[in-house]
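re: ur question from earlier - yeah i can do the single chain one, its not a big deal. heres the input i used so u can compare w yours
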Amino acid sequence: MFSRSTRSNKKRDPNPITGIAFFIALLSSEISSAEVAWPRESHELPDTVVTATRTESAIRESPAAVQVVDRERIDQSGAYTIGEVIEETAGMDVSAEEFSSVGSPTGVSIQGIDASRVLILVDGMRIIGDRAGVTNLAEIPLYSVERIEIVRGPSSVLYGSDALGGVVNIITRRPRNEIEGRVEADYRENEAYRGAARVSGLEGVFEYSASAGYFHRDKFDLDRSDPDTNGDEIYQRNGSAGFAWTPSDNARVEIEGGWFEESSKGIASQTNLGTTFLFDTPKDTRRIDGSFSGDFDLAEDTRLRARVYSSSFSRDTAKALRGAPTNDERNSIAGIRAAELQVDQGFELAGCTHTVTAGGEWRRETLSQDVLKTSVVGALTKAREIPGRGFALWAVFMHDEIEFSDDFKTSVGARMEHDTAFGLHVTESVSALFSPYSNFRMRASVATGFRSPDLKERYFDFDHSFLGYRVRGNANLDPERTLGVNVGFEFEPQDEIALSVNFYRNNLSDLIDSQLDPAESAASGLQIFSYQNIESLYTEGAEFQATFEPIPELTFSLSYDYLIAKNRSTGNALAARPAHKGTARVTYRIPGAGIELTSAARAKSSAFVDSSEQSRSRGYAIVDFRASFEIAKGFELFLGAENIANLTRDPKVATDLRPSSPREVYGGLSYEF
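and the output i got, formated as tokens:
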């Protein structure tokens, strides 16, 4: 019943959501008895996923919809970062411009829910977020990625806090041969170059892997009339190593570790009383991750998985005034320590096949931030913006995937999570898959989710009194909550055509944002902001995807998103959420020549810049091109251009949220063995 990997399940739970599953089951029994003219063809979907249920299952057999970006698509994209790869996926919006400049965190929103409320995992493990709780996708090396799994909609039942909008799980490569590896290097405009190497192998009952990478990009400036840089100069270094022991078919033990370093520097200006001041803005980031896990088959249909892991993060930033001793330095230190235990059990009951996953989790997170300031006269002051704070939580969850027949499956799950600051949270989910024909599938899901206020929102004290404002945390915040519904259809009328459409609605309440405190502002003479539960909003829309392969050498793929995202209190649209987004990709492989040509385009409509609906950012369309040539066995030469039309935002227009990165022509070489 289980294949080698983790797999998940669900158990019936006496709550209202379970009633929805029962209703879907009744409906499907009526539909399956009707006569439909579609042929029962065999459309193989061999890829397996783990994110939707925490256990391995075929994509087509998962009651929850999962989008997969595989290694082939990653290679075709010519992308430098994970964000660039998944931007073509329906329901996803990737934009560093939300955070004002290239060099800021590259986050991803799902179904109109912003990046700080989307959970990013690497091999199922959390990594520490960046500014505003956003996990920077640019910090995860793309060359080590095997595939990316995306679950849209609330996923707190399996993963707890932060998964309001969904989950992006980045699955790293595993060895398949005695020895294999890849070396690649490329160069592009703006003095950007990258080198990476990876080697892995199998030696009897042992597996090993090691990788290292380096990346540099020079700063760039879109407007030479001002001194500001629009893209930071960046240096990145990263590496990883792993070792696994599989003494038998029933046991596997694995240890992994990785590190990441980034140094960046930009130039910013500030005008005060007619005088323009220049600041250097250096930033140094370091992250170290490690894990130890064991996977054991205790019986034919029973599996045990245990894992401990940690993620440590530190960042030094500065704002140094040129030609003066004034300086503003900050140091942030954050950490995650976690332990997980999961049991998968399969059994037959009342003519149905059950796959139950039950588990528990313990996690502790810590955060501190110091600020060191040097005044014009050289006086040194040190303050703690975020005191050394932390919280711990424990959670238990259960998930039952029930197979009533070859045509119909449901899954029901529930989770109880208790943390030291906010007490107990209970979340539920139910989903169903109905596939009366091998070329037609219907999926539906309803789930609740939550997000506990992070340590910054609780304890932050950001003192910019010299600029007239101060931002304070609030230890009395309530968790954010959401209820999400997804209904989707997949149809393959022919082997060469695949179509899918998904409709969704997400209701979010008690969202946290900073708000002006009028009384304290009047008393202090400054603008005093504090975090409050002030917003309730909803997002709803439709996602469409299509793939067409008229001949084996030619593939077309399209996606289109329609989004409505509004504040439920004011009725106004949410900022930076375009109503329309589309992507297109065409790939042509020249038979017998080892040549592959790919062209991709993505477009977004205009969007409001702020919640007052007073101004809009312009819509845009960007086109990329890539060509690869197999010049010898294992050797590939590739050339390409991103943003061919060189479309960028106007840095003089504060309301322009279009991309900052200019056109980049690139070329490189890879060798795989």
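Residues 617 and 654 are 9 Å apart (CA to CA). not sure if urs matches, ping me
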